């Protein structure tokens, strides 16, 4: 019977800690105010590559579409750009 109590208590403690952690929190996914998990240089490699190639070939003025796409990706990753 002691084993039954031991297995019940950890799950109860887990539920309580999760409940207290999320208490009053509406957002489950990280929002724009959360700290990014990556360095900005490593985030969004696909849009960064397209942006950089466009700028090298056509100049910055002609690449606003790719620049904005990269900024949008960085904002989604949690960066304030």
TrEMBL record:
A GO cellular component annotation in the UniProt record: mitochondrial intermembrane space
Keywords: Chaperone, Copper, Disulfide bond, Metal-binding, Mitochondrion
Subcellular location: Mitochondrion intermembrane space
Keyword Thylakoid in record: no
Residues annotated to bind Cu cation: 41-42
GO function terms (MF aspect): copper chaperone activity; copper ion binding
One Pfam match: COX17
UniProt key word Acetylation: no
InterPro entries, sorted: Cys_alpha_HP_mot_SF (IPR009069), Cyt_c_oxidase_Cu-chaperone (IPR007745)
Similarity comment: Belongs to the COX17 family.
Protein name: Cytochrome c oxidase copper chaperone
């Amino acid at each position: 019977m002691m084993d039954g109590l031991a297995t019940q208590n950890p799950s109860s403690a887990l539920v309580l800690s999760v409940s207290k952690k999320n208490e009053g929190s509406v957002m489950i996914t990280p929002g724009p105010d959360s700290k990014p998990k990556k360095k900005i240089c490593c985030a969004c490699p696909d849009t960064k590559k397209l942006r950089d190639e466009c700028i090298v070939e056509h100049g910055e003025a002609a690449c606003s579409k790719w620049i904005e796409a990269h900024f949008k990706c960085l904002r989604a990753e949690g960066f304030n750009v």
